[in-house]
Amino acid sequence: MAKLLTSFFFAQASSSAAAAFLPKLPKLKPLFLNSMSSSSSQIAAILESPSAERNKDPIYDMVLRPKVFPTLMENDNNKIRALELAAGCGVHSTYFVSKFLAENDGMIMEWHPSDPDLEARISIDARVERDNLADSISPASGWILGTAGGTACNDRNRDKGDAGATNSGIGGIEADYSQCHNYFDLVTCINMIHIAPWEATIGLMECAGKTLRKGGILMCYGPYKIGGTAVESNLNFDRMLKSRDSRWGVRDLEDVIEAAKKEGLTFDSYIEMPANNLSVLFRKD
Questions:
Q1: Helix (H) or strand (E) holding 214
Q2: E strand or H helix at 269, and its extent?
Q3: Contact status, residue 96 vs residue 102, Cβ threshold 8 Å
Q4: At 277, which helix (H) or strand (E)?
Q5: What is the pLDDT of residues 22-66, one digit of tens each?
Q6: 78 neighbors 108 (Cβ within 8 angstroms)
Q7: Measured between alpha carbons, how far is 95 from 229 in angstroms, rounded to an integer?
Q8: CB atoms < 10 A from the CB of 119, how many?
Q9: Which residues contact 119 (CB under 8 A, 6 or more apart)?
Q10: What does the pLDDT read at residue 157?
Q11: What does the angle CA 89 – CA 91 – CA 96 come to, to the nearest 5 degrees?
């Protein structure tokens, strides 16, 4: 992730189908941005994320290609609808979609990237236009997963306060978001849980619990503790995070699983990833 909700996140220096066949995307008009108008403005708008560049191949090759996408394509399903939360500057959005389409002829991908930060959303849209993926990737939305936003679906109307007032994420009410309930096959959240308050994880699970269809998958990626401990490098990372913001930190996997369970999400498995990270998979009951 390059740049996220500024009061919650920071960039880690060492880790952090055809249009004719594409169904109409949900009309979240208040959240959408206009596309970039020229190639020069695209280039100027694109942000970079070294950590996303490093982990995009392992996440796709070790998790999405062998485990997630085959499960979602069972029963001859020829379309996948995905919501990417905390999408950052769009490295994962364009890479995952382009790889999936190249490897799965005849499949349709409907990918919805979301990030509360305005510059990140502009970067996502610029990458999509540059890579000619607008038929498969919708304009980036500004759903919030913060203390004030509570849930990206906002159907408890908890959209007041710092997340909506001092940052560029956009709040809303139930009528704007309920069309996405039980809509997505996949929700992804990469490198967010440890560099945000715990309330953002609660919001993530609320959102996934509402927006995933039955049998849908939530994939989370990042460092975790198991049984209260982790490798020394992750313990050091945890201390550094907490020194920057006491609300941050490497989370106990058991706590994340329990938060997911409360929202109707069952822990499926985790995959050990490079650099002492885990990809954690949940299924919607």
A1: strand 212-222
A2: strand 265-273
A3: no
A4: strand 277-284
A5: 233 333 332 333 333 445 566 669 999 999 999 999 999 999 999
A6: yes
A7: 33
A8: 15
A9: 3, 47, 168
A10: 37
A11: 140
Integer Cα distance of 31 and 273 in angstroms: 33
Residue 17 identity (one-letter amino acid): A
Distance CA 90, CA 113 (A): 8
Fill in the amino acid letter for 21: F
Percentage of the chain surpassing pLDDT 90?
A: 63
Q: Please name the residue ranges forming H helices in the chain.
A: 39-45, 50-59, 69-72, 91-103, 118-130, 162-165, 174-177, 198-211, 232-244, 253-261
Distance CA 204, CA 200 (A): 6
Amino acid occupying residue 227: G
Report the C-alpha gap between 120 and 233 in whole angstroms: 29
Tokens of 130: 């540059």
pLDDT less than 50: residues of the chain: 1-38, 147-173
Q: What is the structure's pLDDT at 41?
A: 60
pLDDT in the model for residue 43: 65
Burial of 99 (0-12, 13-18, 19+ CB in 10 A): middle
- β-pairing, 251-252 with 224-225? parallel
Which is nearest to 103 in space by CA: 80, 84, 124?
80
CB atoms < 10 A from the CB of 66, how many?
12
The whole-model pTM stands at: 0.81
HSE of 133 in the Cβ direction (CA atoms, 13 Å)?
31
**Rounded (10°) CA dihedral 112, 53, 58, 209:** -30
CA distance 176 to 217: 23
